[in-house]
Amino acid sequence: MAVTVLLPQVLQADAAGAARIDIALDDTPAVPPEATAPDLSAPRGGPVPAPAPAAAAAPDTRTTLRTVLDELARRHPGLDRRIRDEQGRLRRYVNVFVDSDECRAMGGLDTPVADGAEVRVLPSVAGG
């Protein structure tokens, strides 16, 4: 699984000058897909039907934003301190987008990140 992290110029010094960091996450656990309960009811008065053959499911190749940021922190510890606080939460003034979705609206650090996704880190701009 590969994810690209894109950084603005203000954060590049903490990432050895990199504006783009490609991260391979081969040994990370995948996010379990949404499970649906199987229909275990049987029609009344008749035989129980044989179960349908199991279809080969495609492997889920998603991970979470937390896992991506953990790998980023392993590579660039100074950058992690600019993105997350001492408790590991996203700093209030930092916005993180997974593809085009702001992560706080999608589940915060538990936001699913698909293979090939782009993670953009944008500090807020204030002033007048």
Beta-strand residue fraction: 15-25%
* Known CATH architecture: Roll
Helix content: 10-25%
Distance between the termini: 42 Å
Number of separate domains:
1
Mean pLDDT score: 81
What's the total helix number?
Answer: 4
CATH class: Alpha Beta
CATH fold naming: Ubiquitin-like (UB roll)
Query: What is the topology, as strand order, of the major beta sheet?
Result: 2-1-7-4-5
How would you spell out the order of helices and strands? EHEEHHEEHEE
Q: Nutshell version of this structure?
A:
The chain is of the alpha+beta class.
Verbal overview:
By secondary structure, this protein is α+β, with helices and mostly antiparallel strands. It has a single domain, classed as Roll (Ubiquitin-like (UB roll)), CATH 3.10.20. It has 4 helices and 7 strands. The protein has helices spanning 9-12, 65-75, 77-83, 103-106, and strands at 2-6, 20-24, 63-64, 94-98, 101-102, 112-113, 118-123. A 5-stranded mixed beta sheet has the order 2-1-7-4-5. The radius of gyration is 20 Å and the shape is elongated.
